[in-house]
Amino acid sequence: MKIFQLQNLISHEYLAFVQKEFSSRPLLNALLYSTENPGKLLRPLIMAVVAQELFKNHGSRKNETFPWGQLFPLMWAVELHHTYTLIHDDLPCMDNDDERRGRATVHKAFHESTAVLAGDALLGISYQLLAKCETHKLSELIQFFYFCTGAKGLVAGQLMDLEVINGKVPRPTMQEMIRIHELKTGRLFLFSFLAPLYLTSFDNCQINWKSLVRLASQVGLLFQVNDDEGDSYTGIKTDFGPNLFYHYPEASKMLQNGLKDHILAWVAEGGHFKEWKTLKELLEQYNLI
């Protein structure tokens, strides 16, 4: 399936799920508001690309259709969890942002306490969705999700980020900022690349996990490095946030180019798959390579 077909399918299915899941009661209005503007849906798209490669080269049988029903709960779990982190990240006690993606943030459109509760609800829903996944490895899947998103993952990265913003670490080293990005941004990319391997449909897949982990880590870091570069051009908030390009422009450019080269080389080699053209198209479309 081509990228534009994947985008149309996933966007349609996601919005249908959101409309069905959230009604018009007060708190759910905020949930609907926050989830109906899904942005790029990049993480679910990565899951879809990885799963299609697994299915095509290892998991498929004759006349077997692609297991979208297994994949959708996993996709929505990571997207709704990501949305929760954005809602809380925008709060006055965190980054104190008034707008996101061109419209008012949840705490501005509704109320600060509503935004906190909406984020809490999305956090819970993400685990509820994981529990619906068809897998013999449910415990391992949930533990991996928490590793990526919890106190030793995304949450730890957010805390480190705030320590820089609040002046506790006024001049972070480049390695310290890379570590923040690896935790706060990169771990959700890691989950998106590897989570399909936990599903029942792909039980028998043989893959070099270390190679895929390395690719996922590089893509996640490059996503944030590119974002830092964009912020440096606009000048928005770069003077007090852990922005690589603001603090270390030359070294960051070298890191950015090196990551792109490594990712392109991996895609060209194909890892343990026959082809990764769709992944290349996805990364190109979102200006990652």
Short description:
It is built from 13 helices and two strands; from the N terminus they run ααααββααααααααα.
Describe the protein.
The structure is a single chain. Helices cover 69% and strands 1% of the residues. The chain is mainly α and 289 residues long. A two-stranded antiparallel ribbon has the order 1-2. Helix 3 (42-59) crosses helix 9 (174-194), helix 9 crosses helix 10 and helix 10 (209-234) packs antiparallel against helix 12 (249-269). It starts with a helix and ends with a helix. 38% of the residues are buried.
Note the topology.
Blueprint: H1 3-21, H2 26-35, H3 42-59, H4 68-89, E1 99-100, E2 103-104, H5 106-109, H6 112-131, H7 138-149, H8 154-165, H9 174-194, H10 209-234, H11 244-247, H12 249-269, H13 277-285
Antiparallel strand pairs: 1-2
CATH architecture: Orthogonal Bundle
Our count of helices gives: 13
Average pLDDT level: 87
- Would you tell me which CATH topology applies? Farnesyl Diphosphate Synthase
Q: What is the succession of H and E elements?
A: HHHHEEHHHHHHHHH
- Spatial strand order of the main sheet: 1-2
The CATH superfamily is identified as Farnesyl Diphosphate Synthase
Unreliable runs: none
Strand pairing plus helix content: what structural class? mainly alpha
* Biggest β-sheet strands, sense, barrel: 2 strands, antiparallel
